Amino acid sequence: MPEPTSQHLTREEPMEDEISLLDLAITLAKHKKLILGAPLLAAVVVAVFTLFMPNIYTADTQIMPPQQQSSASAMLNQLGALSGMAGAAGIKNPNDVYIAMLKSRTLQDGMIRRFKLQSVYRAKTPGATRQTLAGVTKISSGKDGLITVQVDDKNPQRAAMLANGYVEALQQMTQVFAVTEASKRRLFFEKQLLQAKEGLSDAEIALKQLQEKTGIIQLDSQAQLIISTAAGLKGQIAMKEVELGAMRTFATGNNPDYIRTQQMLAGLRGQLAKVETGAVTTSKVPETGLEYIRKVRDLKYAETIYEMLAKQFEMAKIDEAKESSVIQVLDKAVVPEQKSKPKRSMTVLLAAVATGFLAILWAFITEALQNAKKESETVAQLNKLKQNLRWN
Predict the structure, then answer these.
(1) Domains observed in the chain
(2) pTM for this model (two decimals)
């Protein structure tokens, strides 16, 4: 018997393809009512359902939060080393802080109270109200550094009010919490200033008690000048040492600013050494007078530290006032004119397409099951025929 050649195979393959395509067409034609009727029915049902869905309006606003400034650039201006220590939080993306504040429970509770959202959303508990508010709010940060706040609501006016309310609440929170570098510096200097004030008060009390105990001691003008100069230099040296320690956290030994600060510190120490060398020898001063000189020196030192910290504290407050208003509203939320949800036409179209696909799939599955059943029945009949033939 001759084997089928490749020519015969090529003739049979198109025949099989034609048969399979013909079977597909027959199946589609056989179930045409289901394939055409099901999508139409689904489209009508979904269209009616969407008609009862309320219109949702979306209001959005964009804000530009303040960016963290480099503490190294501020360290050279009027002993800014302490500001570098205060602002060493190291936040990689400042916008993450503001987004966390916008999503915080404290801010949400303020929004709920302000706009009476528990009654608006008909929620039984404040927790349920927060969940509803979070569900209708979308807060995101773009690559351009802007933060977008979007709020959905059935009432377009309320949607705009809620979006703007988020920004207003954030501005109020930044007045309370230390977020920016300037606010951290202000808190740091405020604590240091309180400690310096206590030290100054203790020095004043100690000097007063000594004066009451021994009587007022008058020093000559040269001694007073030496004490004042030495105390001032010690105060500057202390501040420069703190500045140098803060710079070590981010600068190497070859950093020009670090080297310049070291040179300034060495110069101050040299001046202090000259002042102390030229001072009146302590051997010529009575014990009572020597103790008085020490108390006066401590007082002058405390006054110098307090004055320097007070200047830094005032500068930090000024910077904080500038940065607190830097949360700028790029686009204020306005009342939306058109609804954002539901998209009825798109929903009806998707429902019809999805139902049509499922109807076609159901038609093929049904046809395959019927064919399998017919084939099994045919096989059963052939087996029965064989058994009868064998019996005979």
Answers:
(1) 28-53+342-391 (no CATH), 57-180 (3.30.1890), 182-323 (no CATH)
(2) 0.50
